[in-house]
Amino acid sequence: MNPMHKTLLTIAASALLLSACGSVSTTGVREHDSRQFAPAAELAFEARPGARAYYGTYDGVQGPAVYAAEIPDNWNGGLVMYTHGYRGTGSTLAPSPAPAAYRDTLLAAGYAWAASSYSANFYDVRAGVEDTNQLALELPVYLARDWNVTIEQPTQYLISGHSLGGHTAAAAVERENMQRTRYPVPYAGAAPLCQAEQNQFQWLGDYTRLAMTLAGFGYMPYERYPDLIGVLDGSGEPGPIVTNLFKVNPETGQSTWEPANLNGERLKAMAMQLTGGQRPIFDDGFGSRYQITVLSGGGDDGSVRGILSGNIYDNTGREYRWTDGAEPSAEEQAFNASIMRQSADRGVNPPRNDGVRWLPEVHGDFDVPVLTMHTLGDFYVPFVHQQLYRQGAIRNGNDHLLVQRAIRAPGHCDFSAEETQQALTDWLNWVNGGDKPAGDVVLDPVVVADDNYGCTFTTPQRDGLPACSR
């Protein structure tokens, strides 16, 4: 038997065994189930030199999905599944070519890549995992059907993506998801970049509740938040949550995101702790446009815009700090006693017997080489996800398979072409038997707080940011 087919059968058998054990819930009605999406009218994209581009549609877990693929003339048989980031809430599914530097690095190494639009927009990581896995296994079928092109089944599968796509790539190699997916793929490695994961919605819920409380509106129900935040995109006036905490430019009427008072400073300090602790570039990220992104999303029902059938957010046992002493101050204790508390709905995101969870989880439970990269100032999908990932890998005994790199930039997925090329090149060498690449320590607070943290893999240094001194 072909070793690849044998591996696929083994994973499939594990999935059947797992789904047969115990009670697995598939109940619950969610808004997302009734949504419909359609492929874009134009699917074509231009191939890079020395490669051929392919595109089309196929049936995914939620309906039709778009595929894109690029195969170099010197294909080595390896296939990297690229998983795209968040596409909003529209109904159109667009092709998803990877960034140019990403594509060029893979193609130069002899790898083909393929990407799914997923069969749904919104934050649908379930569609991301299932539709990507299906495409990985059935790409030869689609190319023969749509292009009259014959290719062999890939000899190696890898997976990598950005943001929501990083969540998808990390989830795809988690043991639970590899066992429960409808389409088991024996991925040999993963490179989740600037990845989100299920704790992203804890961060978004925490920050908006902290802002609402510190601005003086903690006595109101959280559903009132949208009325109190105002308009932050420049088309209207910011509301009292913003004006009570941040300075406002008198000429534009818009916030500068500079704390205006003690409560604004406390909000910033708590945000730093929640997003990864003291570290370079945090200040730059805190003052960035991603404040608008994070603050504008508050007041929701915790269902991740209908991806779940109930509320996933929970801060019942959360302790918020703006000081760094061994014990919380009296003022912090009083604040924690007064802040609004919310508990998650029971069984809101259970395992399923028809594939992965509605919101596939990431717990650092994998058995293949994984390389990640994250910007230190990312205020939207914060650096703390890397710390949680490392802690999970340690708990599962596979932290030796995890390499993480910190990049000194303030934006989300704000990687240079050089950083992308180096990370992918090192990752491909590692999964093919080469030396384990170097990475950054992420759990030692003294190391992370050093002024030169993140200098090792940042190329080039960004203008306007604190420079590395060594």
From TrEMBL:
It comes from the Bacteria. InterPro entries: AB_hydrolase_fold (IPR029058). Residues 1-26 form the signal peptide. Keywords: Hydrolase, Signal. GO terms for molecular function: hydrolase activity. The keyword Signal applies. SUPFAM superfamilies: alpha/beta-Hydrolases. This is Alpha/beta hydrolase.
